[in-house]
Amino acid sequence: MEMDEPRIVAVFVTDETITAQLADGRTISVPLAWSWRLSNATPAQRNKFEIIGSGQGIHWEEIDEDISAIGMLTGIPARPPKEKRKDFAHAT
After folding, report:
1. pTM score, whole prediction
2. Confidence class of residue 84 from pLDDT cuts 50, 70 and 90?
3. How far is the C-alpha of 30 from the C-alpha of 19, rounded, in Å?
4. Helix/strand/coil for 48
5. 58, 67 in Cβ contact below 8 A?
6. Could you tell me the CATH number of the domain that includes residue 54?
7. Phi, psi at residue 12, to the nearest 5°?
8. Are 51 and 11 in contact (CB under 8 A)?
9. Is residue 42 part of a domain?
10. What is d(CA 79, CA 36) in angstroms, rounded to the nearest whole number?
11. For 19-47, how does the pLDDT look when each residue is reduced to its tens digit (9 = 90+)?
């Protein structure tokens, strides 16, 4: 890991936000809605995480979600999987 890469040292998850404290003193926050998995998870599941990769990211084992510090700083919200559309052929 590069020394100038952001490194997460603490995480707080609420019903509305995911907040990470970085080793350089910054605090970053993104809407919980950025992660459809976390939005659909219970509060207990949201709070069962580990900081991984020397602070490079956060992992939620139970709901199979990973968010990186760089992703929080520069990323785009995760999109939920698309539901299969039923296209009906019309007889002519």
Report:
1. 0.81
2. low
3. 7
4. coil
5. yes
6. 3.30.2020.40
7. -135, 130
8. yes
9. yes
10. 7
11. 999 999 999 999 999 999 999 999 999 99
Kindly state whether residue 58 falls inside one of the protein's structural domains. yes
Element (DSSP H or E) covering residue 37: helix 36-40
How far is residue 15's CA from residue 1's CA, in Å, rounded to a whole number?
31
Contact 69, 56 (CB under 8 A): yes
Q: Copy the structure tokens of residue 77.
A: 């919200």
Residue 80 falls inside a structural domain: no
* pLDDT tens per residue across span 60-70: 999 999 999 99
What is the domain count for the chain?
Answer: 1
Residue showing tokens 């992992």: 59
| Single-letter amino acid, residue 24 | D
Asked whether residue 34 is assigned to any structural domain, the reply reads: yes
Whose CA is closest to 9, among 65, 19, 42? 19
Cα dihedral 42, 45, 47, 53 in deg (nearest 10)? -140
Domain housing 14: 8-74
C-alpha–C-alpha distance, residues 25 and 39, integer Å: 27
